[in-house]
Each structure stands twice: as C-alpha cells, then as structure tokens.
Amino acid sequence: MRKPIIAGNWKMHKVLSEAKGFIEEVKGLVPSQEKVDAVVCAPALFLESLVQQTQGTDVKIGAQNMHFEDQGAFTGEVSPVALKDLGVSYSIIGHSERRELFAETDESVNKKTLSAFQHGLVPIVCCGETLEQREGGQTNEFVGSQVQKALTGLTEEQVKQTVIAYEPIWAIGTGKTASAQDANEVCAHIRQTVAAQFSENAANAVRIQYGGSVKPSNIKEFLSQPDIDGALVGGASLEASSYLQLLEAVAND
Ligand code: PGA
C-alpha cells in the first residue's frame, strides 16, 4: 500500500509573515502522517523559519528547487547541503516552470535527483507534456523518456522512495485538468517505465502524484485512480483552509 502524499507548491507567493500565518493555522489540524504525507514546498527564504515552526507536527517542509552541487561559485543558487542542514525534507525537481523559464534540462534534473538522495532529501521529480505533444499523441513517449532520464543512476531503493509528479503543462494554473482517467493512464505508463528500467518492486513502491489545477472539489476523483498516489498543488495550496480540505479529502477516504 502506497501512502498518499499531498504537496503544496507555493511558487513565488507570500511574504514571511503570511507563510508563518499559514503554518500556524494548519499545523494542529493536518491529518496524521500515518494516513497522508503533508508537505509544503515554500520559497527558499522561508524554509528555516517554517522547518522550526513545524517541528513535532505532521507537516514536512520542501524546497522548490536546488542545485546539484554541494557548494561553489553558483551565484543565486541553493545548496542541497544547506537545505538538509536546515531540516528540509523534500525538494521539487524539474518543475515545468523551471524547465521552461529557467533552462532546466533532463540532464540537470537527473543530476539534482541523484544529489537529493546523496543529501537525504526526497525528490519530487516533475514531468509532463505540452498541449501540442498531447494533441500529437506523444504524451506517453515524452513523459516516459523524461522519467527514464531523471531516474538514471538511482538505486532500486532510492527509486522506491522517489516521488514523481505528473503535471501536464497545459493543466497547470489554467483551471483545466486532465480527466482522472487520462491522468491515470499516464501515471500507469510512468509506473511501467519504472518497472522496465528498475523492477516491478520499485514500480509498485514509487509514489506518483498528479498535478495541474487540483482543488478540494476534484482531488478525490484523482486519488481514486489506482496509479495516482497524491497531488502536487499550486493555487489551491495557498489558502490554509483549502490545503486542509485537500488533506482531509485524502485522509478520510
Ligand atoms: P496548479 O499548479 O495547482 O496551480 O495548477 C500545480 C503546479 O504547478 O505544481
């Protein structure tokens, strides 16, 4: 049985006082981590403060990006060593906004995924097709190849701990979602890709999230699919009440 994982991706939203206010509201109310893993991926500036604020609670804190090198002359970048030192648990890697706007490549996604494990961070590895690729019937091939490249060089044990987020680019922040069946089909294909590259065991253990306009009113539909184990949520994770509703919908299922 794979435990569901709901991760909020705040992107470049909030100032510190708002971030702390959010955690204050949710921290006593999130369902037990025996039922669901609750993660908040916050801007790097707030991570130290939020890690401290969530100590002893069932909320885990994630970064939205990291560099693959431990340290060095990389102006403006965030070191995975520094993230781990702060007590950060997860890092999103290869979000489509980073791929599109900040020149993230399959190669750097792979290096970051390997580096995350080296430093004891759980990677949330993102993949997903454009509308053009979907309409051209290339979704499975494209997403499968993104996943295969991202996971190259991991051990089977590491793959089992990896979180993969399938996020069709055309569904992110648009209010449009893939149908739950279509999303599941791609997630099943991702699982087959992992089985072929590693093993059935690894494929059965890896958790696959759907992302793209997930909200409290549609999350159950996605989570009821056999190959969808959670959600990566942007817009609907910004308000404490909506974030809690997402978690409750999953925990009470
Ligand atoms: P959205 O974003 O929920 O606002 O569509 C999802 C994401 O980009 O992770």
From TrEMBL:
<keyword id="KW-0963">Cytoplasm</keyword>
<comment type="similarity">
    <text>Belongs to the triosephosphate isomerase family.</text>
</comment>
<feature type="modified residue" description="Phosphoserine">
    <location>
        <position position="213"/>
    </location>
</feature>
<comment type="function">
    <text>Involved in the gluconeogenesis. Catalyzes stereospecifically the conversion of dihydroxyacetone phosphate (DHAP) to D-glyceraldehyde-3-phosphate (G3P).</text>
</comment>
<feature type="binding site">
    <location>
        <position position="213"/>
    </location>
    <ligand>
        <name>substrate</name>
    </ligand>
</feature>
<dbReference type="Pfam" id="PF00121">
    <property type="entry name" value="TIM"/>
</dbReference>
<dbReference type="GO" id="GO:0046166">
    <property type="term" value="P:glyceraldehyde-3-phosphate biosynthetic process"/>
</dbReference>
<feature type="binding site">
    <location>
        <position position="173"/>
    </location>
    <ligand>
        <name>substrate</name>
    </ligand>
</feature>
<dbReference type="GO" id="GO:0006096">
    <property type="term" value="P:glycolytic process"/>
</dbReference>
<dbReference type="GO" id="GO:0006094">
    <property type="term" value="P:gluconeogenesis"/>
</dbReference>
<keyword id="KW-0413">Isomerase</keyword>
<keyword id="KW-0597">Phosphoprotein</keyword>
<dbReference type="InterPro" id="IPR022896">
    <property type="entry name" value="TrioseP_Isoase_bac/euk"/>
</dbReference>
<dbReference type="GO" id="GO:0019563">
    <property type="term" value="P:glycerol catabolic process"/>
</dbReference>
<dbReference type="GO" id="GO:0005829">
    <property type="term" value="C:cytosol"/>
</dbReference>
<dbReference type="GO" id="GO:0004807">
    <property type="term" value="F:triose-phosphate isomerase activity"/>
</dbReference>
<comment type="subunit">
    <text>Homodimer.</text>
</comment>
<comment type="pathway">
    <text>Carbohydrate biosynthesis; gluconeogenesis.</text>
</comment>
<feature type="active site" description="Electrophile">
    <location>
        <position position="95"/>
    </location>
</feature>
<feature type="active site" description="Proton acceptor">
    <location>
        <position position="167"/>
    </location>
</feature>
<dbReference type="InterPro" id="IPR020861">
    <property type="entry name" value="Triosephosphate_isomerase_AS"/>
</dbReference>
<dbReference type="InterPro" id="IPR035990">
    <property type="entry name" value="TIM_sf"/>
</dbReference>
<feature type="binding site">
    <location>
        <begin position="234"/>
        <end position="235"/>
    </location>
    <ligand>
        <name>substrate</name>
    </ligand>
</feature>
<comment type="pathway">
    <text>Carbohydrate degradation; glycolysis; D-glyceraldehyde 3-phosphate from glycerone phosphate: step 1/1.</text>
</comment>
<feature type="binding site">
    <location>
        <begin position="9"/>
        <end position="11"/>
    </location>
    <ligand>
        <name>substrate</name>
    </ligand>
</feature>
<protein>
    <recommendedName>
        <fullName>Triosephosphate isomerase</fullName>
        <ecNumber>5.3.1.1</ecNumber>
    </recommendedName>
</protein>
<keyword id="KW-0312">Gluconeogenesis</keyword>
<dbReference type="InterPro" id="IPR013785">
    <property type="entry name" value="Aldolase_TIM"/>
</dbReference>
<keyword id="KW-0324">Glycolysis</keyword>
<dbReference type="InterPro" id="IPR000652">
    <property type="entry name" value="Triosephosphate_isomerase"/>
</dbReference>
